[in-house]
Amino acid sequence: MVKLSAIVPFYNVQAYAPDMLRSLFLNSRADFEFVLVDDCSKDETPELLERACRTLPGATLVRHEVNGGLATARNTGLAAAQGEYITFLDGDDWLAPGYLAELVAAAERLGCDFLRTDHVQCTGKERTIRRVPHGRRDEVLDPRSAILPADRSTSVDYPFAWAGIYHRRLKDAGLLDFPDGLRTAEDRPWIWRLHREAESFAVVNLLGVFYRRGVATSLTQIGDVRQLDFIRSFDQVLKETARDPEAEQLMPKAVRTYCAIISHHLNNIERFEPAVARKLRTMSSAALKRMPQDVLTEALDSMDVERSARLRRLRRRITAGTDSATAAA
Prior knowledge:
The structure is a single chain. This protein is an alpha/beta fold. The chain is built from 11 helices and 11 strands. It has helices at residues 17-25, 45-53, 70-80, 99-110, 168-172, 187-197, 229-242, 247-267, 274-290, 293-302, 305-328; strands spanning 4-10, 32-38, 59-63, 85-88, 94-95, 114-117, 119-123, 126-130, 164-167, 201-204, 209-213. It has a 7-stranded mixed β-sheet with strand order 3-2-1-4-9-6-10, with helices on both faces. A 4-stranded mixed β-sheet has the order 5-11-7-8. Helix 8 runs antiparallel to helix 9. The chain is globular, with a radius of gyration of 21 Å.
């Protein structure tokens, strides 16, 4: 039986794919498989993957005829995965030698549904350790216990799918699929669903993923309309959280996080194309209007002055526009 399936989407990363492929070779094991998904790359990435599959033990190459985005590519990999455990990687990052074996050993030792790990953020030559915002380590816990409090960073604010390992029973239960077609923030509904519906998780002190920031081809660096998918992503978080039996306790966290992300994008609006910037304001206004208004008021009251003021101005414009439309009618 395959012990671990590592799912690795690639899209136009010819400059970085060799680092990831080399690190996979240094992590290979007879019972590991590597599902490489080419998301219709237009550069030399497909040729690099073809050559790697001839020498990388356990490698399988799956190609998309049409670019579908990271969420869709991960789902393609999930459909092909045979392992008892599953992990996700990104084609422009890399791993420390032997990291995957340590990850599997930790999962087997603790026996829970999923594990979360720290990672090393790499910006140029700078290296920074990023920790899971959860203090209790090497202890199996209820994932719901790591969602709150609303006013602090918690495990659902650390959504990186590649920072962890997941038992196959989560795949069989439908908890590992990503919202198909989302171009950004695809991991936000995913991590919320895991924490609401999985039965057990743990955080371990294990470093091995080197996450490359500031890549020019990364969607987070491109100010086009695809960035606005974060609205669809967080709308899904709110919709699913509203159906939860503990919605009253969880909704303030979901709303506050949504507000913080809207504020972040508005604060950096100059990096968007002008038409996209206008659409960001319009869509953000509509998003605030869709939120439970009492919960939204509490969220704004709990935020720092700068972010709160930015969102209150946007909210007042919504109210003014609604009042004007009502008077005209």
